[in-house]
Design goal:
Arc Repressor Mutant, subunit A; Alpha-Beta Plaits; 2 domains; elongated
Length: 155
C-alpha cells in the first residue's frame, strides 16, 4: 500500500459511495487507476464490501445498551451464538475473554423494549446471568483516525 491507496481509503471511509471519477479528481489520478487499486485492495481482503449508515433515531431506535452474557459452560457457546442471531435488535456480538463470554450491543425503542430484549437474551440456554450498561451518547466513531495511524506505521 502506498499514499495513493491511503488517500483512496480515506475518501471511501468518509463515503463508500463516492464515484471513482470523483476520487480520481481529488487525488489527481485516472479513474482507471482508482478502479484497479480498489479491486486490488478487495482481492487482498483489505476492503470488504461497503457500508451503509442508518440513522436509527429517525426510525425510533434511540436506546442503545451493551449486554454482557455470563455462561456457565463454554460448550454452550455455539448454541448461544445461534440463538443471539435470532434476535434482530442485537446488532453486534463478540465472543470475549474476561468476565463475559459474549458481549452484545442492542438497539431498542425505549427502556421497556430493551428490557424485553435483555430478558430474551437471559433466557437463552447456557446463559447464567446478564449485566447491562446503557449508552448515554456515542462520542467517538471515527475509522479515519485508526486508518491514519495504521498507514503511518506501514510507511
Amino acid at each position: 500500500m502506498d499514499d495513493i491507496d491511503h488517500q483512496i481509503l480515506q475518501i471511501l471511509i468518509e463515503n463508500s459511495r463516492t464515484p471513482f471519477t470523483d476520487i480520481a479528481k481529488k487525488i489527481l489520478v485516472s479513474a482507471g487507476t482508482v478502479h484497479i487499486r480498489v479491486k486490488k485492495m478487495e482481492d487482498q481482503g483489505i476492503i470488504k464490501g461497503s457500508t451503509l449508515i442508518i440513522d436509527y433515531e429517525k426510525m425510533d431506535y434511540t436506546f442503545i445498551a451493551y449486554v454482557g452474557l455470563y455462561t456457565g459452560n463454554v460448550s454452550f457457546s455455539q448454541n448461544i451464538i445461534e440463538e443471539i442471531k435470532k434476535i434482530p435488535e442485537v446488532t453486534v456480538a463478540h465472543l470475549t475473554t474476561g468476565k463475559f463470554s459474549v458481549y452484545c450491543k442492542i438497539r431498542a425503542k425505549n427502556t421497556k423494549h430493551a428490557k424485553k430484549i435483555i430478558f430474551r437474551l437471559s433466557n437463552i440456554e447456557g446463559i447464567s446471568r446478564t449485566e447491562s450498561s446503557i449508552s448515554l451518547e456515542e462520542v467517538i466513531n471515527d475509522k479515519k483516525r485508526l486508518m491514519k495511524h495504521i498507514f503511518k506505521n506501514i510507511i
